[in-house]
Amino acid sequence: MVDVSRRVFFTRKSINYNMVRLPWIKEAQRFTELCTRCGQCEQACETQIIVKGDGGFPQVDFSLDECTFCYKCAEICPEPIFSSEQQPAWDAKAQISDTCLATQNIECRSCGDSCEPMAIRFQLRAGGVAQPQLELESCNGCGACVSTCPSNSISVSNE
């Protein structure tokens, strides 16, 4: 087991609790204490977006695909890390940066096309390219928009 507090002390890195680890995590601050890094959640993930992150702990990589909220990672985990499926999966939301092609006056709507809850819509603009508008209350944090973005302008975090 990695003593995260000591590792952080010597590397002078702070732990990013806003990083998207896994859906339905009960306590982000205790995740590294409770997770044994067995890898069962990685194998169970139907979209294979759970990867080994810092220290071998699982985390979600939306550049690979999206979370379908299948709950398989929680079902297979032998540790008491996850809350029930009836709870919200996470507070994660998408964020669109200024490097978005639409802000560079290049037509692109790939994120909106991949957004099933339709949280990303495009506002038409006279004489220019339609601009993405993100409705955070509709965003479920699935990350479908991340892997389809050709300019890597979208991220998902708990911030």
From TrEMBL:
[4Fe-4S] cluster 2 binds at residues 67, 70, 73, 77. Its main location: cytoplasm. Keywords: 4Fe-4S, Cytoplasm, Iron, Iron-sulfur, Metal-binding, Repeat. [4Fe-4S] cluster 1 binds at residues 35, 38, 41, 45. Gene3D superfamilies: 3.30.70.20. Residues 26-55, 56-87, 130-159 form the 4Fe-4S ferredoxin-type domain. [4Fe-4S] cluster 3 binds at residues 139, 142, 145, 149. The keyword 4Fe-4S applies. The keyword ATP-binding does not apply. InterPro entries: 4Fe4S_Fe-S-bd (IPR017896), 4Fe4S_Fe_S_CS (IPR017900), NapF (IPR004496), PSI_iron-sulfur_center (IPR050157). It is found in: Cytoplasm. Its cofactor is [4Fe-4S] cluster. Belongs to the NapF family. Interacts with the cytoplasmic NapA precursor. Could be involved in the maturation of NapA, the catalytic subunit of the periplasmic nitrate reductase, before its export into the periplasm. This is Ferredoxin-type protein NapF. It comes from Vibrio hippocampi.
